[in-house]
Amino acid sequence: MNRRLAQGFSADRVPERTDAVEAVVALGANLGDRAATIAAALDELARLPLTRVTAAAEPIESVAITPQGADATAPAYLNTVAIVTTRLAPTVLLSYLHAIEARHGRERTVRWGDRTLDLDLIAYGEVTSADPALTLPHPRAAERDFVLEPWLRADPEAVLPGHGRVADLLARLRGSAP
User: Fold this and answer.
1) Per residue in 117-144, is it b (16+ CB within 10 Å) or e — as a string?
2) Is 153 among the catalytic positions?
3) Which end of the chain is more exposed for a tag (fewer CB within 10 A), N or C?
4) Backbone dihedral angles phi then psi of residue 118, each to the nearest 5 degrees
5) Among 34, 87, 120, 144, the one annotated catalytic
6) Catalytic residue among 87, 106, 114, 144
7) What predicted TM-score, i.e. pTM, was given to this entire model?
8) Is 115 a catalytic residue?
9) Catalytic residue among 34, 114, 118, 144
10) How far does Cα 105 stand from its chain's mean position?
11) Could you give the C-alpha distances from 67 to 62, 71, 80, 113, in angstroms and in order?
């Protein structure tokens, strides 16, 4: 194993452990052949070093979300969630996710704009971070049906760190909280 991949590249911050961590990656696409892109991205996730995909939900379709809210006039998204175990540092994993997006033609020109592929690191074990370069857990995951539903399908016992059980979060979003 390449120790630097597990630790990250910051010389001033060395992790205490290199055990595998469960991470949650959300995948979405609303341009091109969405299903083929999602399938290819899942395959690429499975080939990352020090990483193994342990579960992935069947994709669901959702309305596009913009800073102004839901936009039914934009192309619909296909979304899923993959659960991976990894020994990569979270920043290194995120860099790999950005590289996969770029290989699929992702352009970051408009915030929350249409995209060929969007990969978000939703959670990385119990790690929390307010760093602008990598906020963990993902700051809007608890508000996103299109993240919570496939995550729950992939892992019925899932918990979003700092927010609670994914099943409860989804029920609250849908107005059927216990």
Assistant:
1) bbbbbbbbbebeeeeeebebbbeebbeb
2) no
3) C
4) -130, 125
5) 120
6) 106
7) 0.86
8) yes
9) 118
10) 18
11) 16, 10, 21, 9
Amino acid at 5: L
Closest CA to 104 of 64, 25, 56, 45: 45
Please name which of 83, 88, 97 lies closest in space to residue 41, comparing C-alpha atoms: 97
- What is the predicted pLDDT for the residue at 112? 63
CA–CA dist 153, 77 (Å, integer): 18
Convert the pLDDT of each residue in 82-108 to its tens digit: 999 999 999 999 999 999 999 998 776
Intervals of the chain under pLDDT 70: 1-18, 108-113, 177-178
* Residue 57: both structure tokens together: 């939900």
105-115: per-residue pLDDT in tens? Answer: 877 666 666 78
Which of 115, 131, 145, 153 is the catalytic position?
115
